[in-house]
Amino acid sequence: MHMLFWGLGTSALVAGVAYRKGSLSESGFWGAVLVGTLIMGFGGLLWYCMLMAFFISGSALSHYKKERKGEVEANFAKTGRRDFGQALANGGLGSLLAVLSRTVLSPGAAFAMFLGVMATVSADTWATEIGVLSKEKPRSVLSWQEVPPGTSGGVSLLGTGAAVLGALLVGLVAHIGLRLSGATYLPMGRTLMAALVGGLAGCFTDSLLGASCQVIFRCPVCGTETEKREHCGRETEYLRGYRWLNNDLVNLLASGVGGLVALLYLA
Ligand SMILES: [Zn+2]
Predict the structure, then answer these.
(1) Looking at the DSSP assignment, which residues form a beta bridge with residue 169?
(2) What is the pLDDT of residues 218-257, one digit of tens each?
(3) pLDDT tens digits, residue range 132-174?
(4) Is residue 267 packed enough to be buried (19+ CB in 10 Å), middle (13-18) or exposed (0-12)?
(5) Which residues crowd ion ligand 1, with CB under 5 Å?
(6) How far is the CA of 141 from the centre of ligand 1 (A)?
(7) How many structural domains does the chain have?
(8) Which of 48, 73, 162, 260 is 20 to 30 A (C-alpha) from 65?
(9) Sign of torsion over alpha carbons 109, 114, 117, 120
(10) Which structural domain, as residue segments, surrounds residue 87?
(11) 67 CA → ligand 1 middle, Å
């Protein structure tokens, strides 16, 4: 029980800093506090460290070369200041797994899935924040046509390399934590590969869904295709994709695939 209070305190502190630095909106602050409290409270310290590896690296990367990302930010939902929906898209499944690890799931299975989930959201964030700076234009993972930087489903060499690093970061924290705690519920030495395989599978799912069935809108003023409901101060019009499948839901589904792949890899 006292871990919930530790989770609440540390999460409020970390999310408060992120809010002041402009990485979280006000609703994003509350989302991050909720996620952090549940993951520390039910998952424990190692789970929380893996969440922090993702959150702190992702927030830092969102500030990196910020001025060059401005234009991309105006059209695509992913980069920049995170709101409540994005906090849950990235941390919702992890929070659920933390709670389930205390009830219906075995600790090993829950941790394996959490590893894949966090590796996916980290890989995806790294790929977005660094890939957007690629000098080469990204290509659609489906049609292999060039697409504007930041487009969901667009992939570049730089972004893919960043995804690998983002997944490995979470895997490394997990590996060190398991070693220090002497936990025996996971095959030691396979956590890095599990994070890499799960993270890349999740990332690929994200790109595939983003390029195929995620909802896309069009700005009635300037004609730009965008993921946002508002552009140039006006409400955007529906263009294509499933209306219910927004960027946050795509992230959530992709992290689920990453979790399952990591679980299968470690089984
Ligand atoms: Zn516009």
Answers:
(1) none
(2) 999 988 888 888 888 899 999 999 999 999 999 999 999 9
(3) 888 889 999 999 999 888 788 899 999 999 999 999 999 999 9
(4) exposed
(5) 219, 221-222, 224, 231-232
(6) 25
(7) 1
(8) 48
(9) negative
(10) 2-266
(11) 19
